[in-house]
């Protein structure tokens, strides 16, 4: 059999410390002994879930004879586990908790429940901190490092990496999940990169990449160089161009020497040599090149210095002219430094004007192109010496031209024309003051003619428009070579002679229709004068008219039957002076092409009376001649007469059938045609006769053969073609039975309805008649029968369909029309049901009535009797709770005498049982709702359960938050505390203590002004005394808290402990008053899920997520003699904690509280502070200051909250008078005393003390 042993050190350093977990390699704080060697547990399975309220079920496969023990199963927070069937436990993370949790599920033997073992599971809650592991790499140049290959990420992906600290001897960039490292050139040694690993939910960790860097470099190779300097000028040599580096490194000139006969300077990558004045020959100097790694080589540069010819110097020249040619001796200011003869060798031409060079006079002569305006022009010339080599120079000559041009003077001109073209030398009377040659630059066009310039004579030639006579004019302009322009006007008088018009004969042809001829189309006037017809004659047949608009002569034969040739003359005249005329003859050939008319047969219909028709309406004549009836015949059975253009037929009396007659139609020329008119005689139709009808029904549909009494005078068949609808019911027609059927459509209706119908015959035309049908409807409905009903209620609403036992002889649908109320309850209607809700607390018999009606409004009444019998049910409550604020809940049960024995909640650590009540405390960060299953039992084992629904964060007025307090006092001595120092109201309301329960082993004095409780234990009493007090706000909301008094004997133990957040701490109380074997029977703190009683006489405490501050743990143990003792611990939860308890400060001894500041000049005493013995509710503080100045003394708790602050004026340096700081009002815990120099805040010293 294995024995379960708790190893505190392993638990604190293993899962309990929430360190990072490795699958299959985790060493747990569990040691199984009994087989001679340690055996460590293996992880069965890992889970990933979100934070609260997410949850998960962990299920196991049991062997035969095993069972899962949920009470023996554990996690870091035991209240996270709850049973879920026989094979599972439900894990719910605490609110605000995030990280890995270890779940140990206990499996035991059914035959021996003490024979158990554990299965280990890891639950990762929320976003899990990744683990970035350090890396090492060798770098010989740019190196890619896969830094995440050995990193650990759980329940998330790697989102990315980021460089936090760059390397010292190179550069690093991120590429995906790799880091690319490039070392500094030439560097050998070590380097490091710190990078940050980021997972996909935002958690981060850092690690270091350690690098070993090695560089393999070869020195550069410097080659000798040469250069040439001419005539003492500086020469620059790119000495690196022929040098070489095997590594491809960039080379630089490191140092260089000087020549013996010249000076060397560095210019970029060149070395520039300047020979001493007058030196010629060869000079040398050295230089050294280096690569970036400072490996170097040296070479020599040899310079040859040569003396050469110097170029001549050409200086610019200037000149001015008023438009005349000007000559300049340009070489007057030119020279050669060597005294060599110089000469002009080339020159350019200016943009304006021209230049010639005279080698005899050595002058440049400039001739301007014009003197129209002022301008400046330039040209260049080159001079050369006769040295070797021949050298030259160039200069510019600038000429300023001042222009004095005047515009030309133009005079107006006159000319005449007889209608022909006339040319005018318009420039003959014009001149230019400067003597410039003039030419015509442009001209306008006249209004009544056109102008062109003769390219040979340069004259302007005017041609008048045809027929124009009168005065016309145009303008012309002339410009000189400088562009100056003037204009003048030319006036032309045009006078024309008159000639007679010419009239030519015309011909035309017509087929009897009028014909028009534009006779002047072939006529004309030699002068172009307008011509017009002034007279015309008439032919022997027909007439002629003249249309002055269309200028046509129109001939009309006036006889469609005429055929032959006719002539007539006409005269045309012009409008000249004098007016002249001419005659011509028009010949017209008339052709007769008349065609006989086409007569078409006609048809007529008659109802026995006369019928007429224009029989010519469908006849036609191809020539469009007017047609007329020349003759007509008679019908065999009727008479025909002519009435205007119509033929009228009247049938003989009584005749019915077909008859016909003929007629003849002729045109104007006597051509004729014959056609036949057919007459169909049909006598008229008579309408049918429809007679009214009647019927009777008792609400059922009824059908009537309405045509039984209808008939047609002509004996034609008749049929119903239409019918109306009555005001009540509907009518349909059955064409098979020829009946109209009436349906009342309302069983309740009674009365008389009417509707009409229409019958028609099949005559031509179709004729109809209407009649009315009257129906008498009789109602025989019977009222419904309502039956009484009975109901039973347990105090809640009860409903019944009261119509279910009611009936209607007619089968009508029934409905509730009205209902009454009970004497002790409320009745409502819900659909076809009546629902009765008894008044609160009513029990007995009650009744109400209702009325039921059918569709026709006939009704009956019945009574419903309700018996109310309320069974006893445990009370179901709904409460509101806010995190951290205890709520006392007292549900009622039906048992006579009962005690609450169990409360199931989402987190059992938030529950404390108090006989007929329990205290519920929502955890920090908990939200939403909770459902509490409350179980109560009596002394006979009878039990009941109820449900309490909790809304967390319900708002409104919240009760005060009263936190438990405790104080320790020696035997037979008074102990005091201020319980409301750690109480508060969430709404900020003022709070007061309203009630105190008396202690069992002492008495209390309460000062309601200061809020101080002072407890005096009974003589000789030691142990734990517990009593409660109630604190209320000014709105009546109250909360209770507990005060625990520990009365100690001479037995002392460490009562003050410290631990980091979420880090378990093991508490093993000594129990000074107990003897023999001691068993811990109870352990309590603010949230019991922080507490786990271990089987070895110790208790494990783990702070809740995000909690920091002080918490009280009360542990009760009993020995085998039945003696019990309660020990109270104060636990400080802080990141600053080193994991060990501070312990109790012994009487009359200094404790952690001696400290010396690091501030102070050389030779100057440093600040010191001593915090000593906590005696009778005071702490003594002694401190040394090196300077006479003002100091501040402050006391804070370990969360940084200020509890005491004062200013101390040190009038002399050295040790200051001892201060006694009262601490009765302080809660148990560790406090920090700090002395700070007021004018130098960096100069301070501090020490700690503990209040208990």
How would you sum up this structure, described in words?
- The protein is mainly β and 1252 residues long.
- It has twelve domains: 3-125, Sandwich (Immunoglobulin-like); 135-213, Immunoglobulins (Immunoglobulin-like, Sandwich); 225-306, Immunoglobulins (Immunoglobulin-like, Sandwich); 317-401, Immunoglobulins (Immunoglobulin-like, Sandwich); 413-494, Immunoglobulin-like (Sandwich), CATH 2.60.40.10; 506-590, Immunoglobulins (Immunoglobulin-like), CATH 2.60.40; 602-681, Immunoglobulin-like, CATH 2.60.40.10; 693-777, Immunoglobulins (Immunoglobulin-like, Sandwich); and more.
- Helix content is 0%, strand content 49%.
- It has one helix and 95 strands.
- The strands form 27 sheets. Strands 87, 88, 89, 92 and 93 form a five-stranded antiparallel sheet that branches.
- It is flat and about 175 Å long.
- The chain starts with a strand and ends with a strand.
**CATH fold-level assignment of the largest domain:** Immunoglobulin-like
Give the proportion of residues in helices.
Answer: under 10%
Task: Please state the second-level CATH architecture of the largest domain.
Answer: Sandwich
Output mean pLDDT. 84
Rg (C-alpha, Å): 68 Å
Number of helices: 1
Number of strands: 95
**Quick one: overall form?**
flat
The chain-level structural class is mainly beta
DSSP strand (E) fraction?
A: over 45%
**CATH homology-level superfamily of the largest domain:** Immunoglobulins
Note the gap between the termini. Answer: 45 Å
What's the assembly state of these chains? single chain
Unreliable stretches: 1-40, 1139-1164
Largest sheet: 5 strands, antiparallel
- In CATH, what is the class of the largest domain? Mainly Beta
Count structural domains.
12
